[in-house]
Structure formats: structure tokens, C-alpha cells
């Protein structure tokens, strides 16, 4: 029997498992936005950090009265426009914003598809980064080169490891969420391989 692919495995998780997995992936993506913000002086990375913290709180305390809509209002003005910046870092910054907004919308609408999309956005972000690197190096950036690139293989492995952890979590508690968040950033780099 072949090992189920990651996206299929995510589909089989329950609502809360999908939510915490999305949060863990966002922990890996968030520093990409911070680095972009530092480099350009655009946006407020603290708004993103705070919004993700609110998401974690909502997952752990579903009855809490925190307003996720307010978080969306705070994030939207901090999403960069591609046309305003002539640097690659704009792409992962937008991907982070898109994934974070998806997380918030998913929690508001109880829409599990939004959480699955975060893993797809993260992987697409890695793919775009690899294509960019290969092109800069004068290499062919076709699907095979991207798929077999060590960074993409690593992204797939990290996602599988996070899914393994989430599958074993049992009841979601602040304790095992803390462990999951630590696991997500334990390698000290973002999803696109930038040291944090």
C-alpha cells in the first residue's frame, strides 16, 4: 500500500486537527512576512503575529468572545500589492497574508477547506521560491525540477511530520498545541528555508 499523500491525510483529519495543522504551518510562514516588512518598511508584522495568536486562542477556547472579524480588518491594510514592490519577498509575504486570512475565515465559517488550503498555499510558496532560485541560477524550472528539489522534498516531509503529530494529539489542549508550535519551528527556518 502506498503512503497516502499529505493532502489526502489532511482531508481525513477532523475540524480541530485541520485547524491546528493550519496554525502550525502559519508559524513557519509568518517570519517570511516579518522579513519582508523589515526589508521594505511596509506593513506591521505584529498585527499578523497577534492575529495568529488570536486564532490559537479561538481553537483552544471556542466559546471565547474574541472577534476574528476585527483581526481581518487589521490584516487587510497590511497585505502588500505585488505592483508596489520590485522584490521576490513580496510573494511569500502575500502568501502568508492569504493563508492567515484563510485561517480566520475558516474559523469564522467553520470551513475546514480553508485549513486544507493553508498547506496548499505553503507548498505553492515553496514551489515559487524554487522556480525563482532555479531561474536566477540559469536552470530549467520545470515541474520535475521543482518537485525533486531538496527544499520541496523537505516541505513535504515537514508537513508529513506535522500531520503525524496532529494525528496523535488526541484531545487538543494548550499543552500539546505548545508542543506542535515548537515542532513547527524547531528547525529554525521558514517554509522557504530562510533562517529565523
UniProtKB/TrEMBL annotation:
Gene3D superfamilies: YP_001051499.1 domain like
One Pfam family recorded for the sequence: DUF416
The organism's place on the tree of life at top rank: Bacteria
Protein name per the record: YjaG family protein
Source organism: Pseudoalteromonas lipolytica
Amino acid at each position: 500500500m502506498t503512503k497516502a499523500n499529505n493532502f489526502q491525510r489532511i482531508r481525513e483529519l477532523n475540524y480541530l486537527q485541520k485547524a491546528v495543522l493550519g496554525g502550525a504551518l502559519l508559524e513557519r510562514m509568518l517570519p517570511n512576512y516579518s522579513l519582508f516588512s523589515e526589508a521594505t518598511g511596509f506593513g506591521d508584522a505584529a498585527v499578523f503575529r497577534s492575529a495568529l495568536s488570536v486564532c490559537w486562542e479561538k481553537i483552544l477556547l471556542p466559546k471565547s468572545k474574541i472577534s476574528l472579524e476585527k483581526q481581518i480588518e487589521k490584516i487587510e491594510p497590511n497585505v502588500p500589492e505585488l505592483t508596489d514592490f520590485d522584490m521576490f519577498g513580496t510573494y511569500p509575504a502575500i502568501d502568508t497574508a492569504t493563508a492567515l486570512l484563510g485561517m480566520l475565515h475558516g474559523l469564522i465559517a467553520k470551513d475546514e477547506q480553508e485549513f486544507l488550503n493553508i498547506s496548499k498555499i505553503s507548498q505553492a510558496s515553496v514551489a515559487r521560491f524554487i522556480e525563482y532560485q532555479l531561474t536566477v541560477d540559469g536552470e530549467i524550472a520545470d515541474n520535475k525540477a521543482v518537485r525533486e528539489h531538496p527544499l520541496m522534498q523537505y516541505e513535504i516531509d515537514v508537513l508529513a511530520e506535522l500531520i503525524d503529530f496532529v494525528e496523535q494529539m488526541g484531545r487538543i489542549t494548550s499543552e500539546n498545541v505548545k508542543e506542535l508550535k515548537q515542532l513547527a519551528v524547531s528547525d529554525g527556518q521558514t517554509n522557504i528555508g530562510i533562517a529565523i
